[in-house]
Amino acid sequence: MLYRCTPHAPAADHGHSHTIKSNRKHLTVDIHCHVHVPECDAMIDDKWTVEQMPMIHFASDLTRGLNVEQNDILMPKLTDPELRIADMDACGVDVQAISPSPFHYSYWADPELGRDVARVANDRVGELGASYPDRFAPMCTVPLQNPEMALAELERCHSEHGMKGVEIGTNVEGQELTRAGLEKFFARVEELDMLIFMHPLGTTEGNRMKDHYFTNLIGHPLESSLAIGHLIFDGYLERHPNLKVCIAHGGGYLPGYWGRFDHPYPTREDVHGDLPHPPSHYLKKLHFDTVVFTEMQLRHLIEAWGADHIMMGTDYPYDMAEPDPVGHIDSVEGLSEDDKALVWGGNAARLLNLAYETAG
After folding, report:
1. Helix-helix angle 147-160:183-191, to 10 degrees
2. Hey, where are the domains in the chain?
3. Which long-range contacts (CB under 8 A, 24 or more apart) does 175-182 make?
4. Contacts (Cβ under 8 Å, ≥6 apart) of 303
5. pLDDT digits (tens, 9 = 90+) for 68-116
6. pLDDT tens track for 224-239
7. Does the reported pTM lie above 0.70?
8. Quick one: fold of 21-357?
9. Do you find a cis peptide bond into 111, omega within 30 degrees of 0?
């Protein structure tokens, strides 16, 4: 399915200023959009197995075929910045916080190959950010299978490309993020004041999800929920109180069912561990994008977690993308203009440290 936008007022022409300028009253920032780098595909060609790709492994033949057809159709939008900017203008997006396609994670690869793939992907995303500084805010990917290399690539992207965000998966080849030796990585992200954008890629628990595109429809929200749970219960959000994290797809299932985390906290040692606060205390530190598709669910996210914790997203340009991100937020019943401005772009600008000017 080709990505289509609902038209909105045109954005500012792209230029080379480091201060983003919007012709609208409020800045609009898409926190959730992907860039594909064909050179990375060539680097891993014939080096992976189906079992190492959950999105392929846990999929029916019908789903696999549809995904191949879709990727062929969408590749121009994933690679051509001018096509991307035309879509942004059509649907009212001033800035995309662009991140490498999750298919470039390559956590399955030998560390050196994973590092090299990440470097190529990051250099391309960084190049786009440098060429269109008022339209693209680049985020990087890092080889999480090797904590030292992940840390080095994070620091390189921060210093060489000025990247203010890093995209990570929800597990490292089935190993929890909190149990993969990444303590120094998370600590450094916090020190650098970078935003973590967490995005799943299939699920390691996919044996019952091969039909009906469930690896995406159910697997992705489940993966995010598991990753959040470990960040909370394994104490990472307690030890790193200033860590900035945004979870794709509205945060998965937890933001709508956090009471089940809190209920046993006072009585069960296997739940509370050493946490000095209930789990929801840490959940309130997180941020979620708006890719939830219905006004009611978006309204619930904002009411439950606050307008200052929700960021506009699309999942551009895939079939699971929100085609009218600005209108989706504008449709939320009872939402004030100030809160809309936060969700449209104010929160993303704050968390990514973006300087901007608006017509308002």
Report:
1. 20
2. 21-357
3. 176/226, 176/227, 176/230, 176/234, 177/144, 177/227, 177/230, 177/231, 178/230, 178/231, 178/234, 178/236, 179/230, 179/234, 180/144, 180/145, 180/147, 181/147, 182/144, 182/147, 182/150
4. none
5. 888 788 889 999 999 999 999 999 999 999 999 999 999 999 999 999 9
6. 999 999 999 999 999 9
7. yes
8. TIM Barrel (3.20.20)
9. no
